[in-house]
Amino acid sequence: MPASFEINETTITQKIDDPWLKGKGIELLVKRDDLLHPLINGNKWRKLKYNLIQMQSQNKTELLTFGGAFSNHIHACAAAGKMFGLTTHGIIRGPNLDQSNPTIQFAQQCGMQLHVVNRIEYKLRSDAQYLADLRTKFPNAYFLAEGGTNTYAIQGCAELAQSLPKHDYLICPTGSGGTLAGLIEGSNVTTQIIGIAVLKQAQYLIEEVRKLSAKARSQTNWQLLCDFHGGGYGKFTPELWAFCQHMSTTHNLPLEPIYSGKMLYALWQLIEQDYFPFGSKIIAVHTGGLQGLEGLKYRKLI
Predict the structure, then answer these.
(1) Domain of 268: which CATH number?
(2) What is the pLDDT averaged over residues 123-149?
């Protein structure tokens, strides 16, 4: 096991120069966390960092986690395993393991041991007895929840907020709530923080964020917007995908339509509605996940 788990965390903050934004009096910067590392990037590294340190402090030599077949989290954990010389296990939601799936292929190339389970068993991934049984089976493993969100994940995401230039609004995509909670923890109380829920009926995440962040429980400078999910998790409209392609060609900003693309498209609509006061400085966090484009191509969704 390595003495330390480190990558270079310096990434650019890209200004989006657009006449339409200028007309609205908006300065928009994108924190390019997709450029953190070729394989372990975005919020996945932020969440993993302190979990790996915690794993080491517990003298665990293996990492076990959960995810779907196209999961960015599984991809990042597998890459971290290869990079840092760790044995990794992925409990994959089945019922079958598609060996042609690019995310699965990558995880296997990194040496991750994949354990496919049916959907009924996968639903037990937070069940105490199920986890106790798994711990008996994998005694040397550090267990990390699906998506990587827990207390230790918050520390890494808080560091991201602390690294940013001055701004009025901070916006991020929200899947499990960990990144949003970390940004609230790491931000000044004068900053307005907005999460864009990427899944349907995500109001329950408001309580999850409060559980993860003491500041979220006591401060009112944040909100989760739940009306921009585009049909649900993993779903997106032709208009959203066209927007992603436009941002890539016009502003050299690569996006996928599941997380960061969905968030920026929502931001565009909010700016159109004059949601932000004239003169606002906004930072949008690109949380990575571009590996997911290969999976969308594989499924002929793009």
Answers:
(1) 3.40.50.1100
(2) 97
